[in-house]
Amino acid sequence: MRVLLQRVSRASVTVEGDVISEIGRGLLLFVGVTGTDTDGDAAYLGEKIINLRIFEDTVGAMNRSAMDLHGSGEDVGLLVVSQFTLYADTRKGRRPSFIAAAPPAVAAPLVTAFASKLRDRGLPVAEGRFGAEMAVELVNDGPVTIWLDTAERRPT
To answer: Containing domain of residue 45, as a range?
Structure first.
């Protein structure tokens, strides 16, 4: 499972001209799923992301996580957007291959499970629409953009 995380001051998803989801300050999470991913991968990434210290404290150092902000009553939102193109293979030719991306029947439940695991921790979670043509608008804060991939994680 892969997540491209962007710290944002605001983000929204529009489908067919209608804004279906939006957040203010928080994290935009583009989520890609491959065929070998499990609920365990979704849980691991969810915990990792909400505890990453990527928000600034009062002296400007990145010492606070989304959970820290939420726990102190500050507004922080998470926006989960499925994105199979995170599994693009561009090593050959000019047309990306998406063979490593999980089929919708596998990917959709895992993206939903990922969002649910975030929600279960009490954080406000907005979502895109799986399989839809989405327009994602964001203001990257920092900019802070981080790549996470469960294939690269170290054993605990």
So the answer is: 2-152
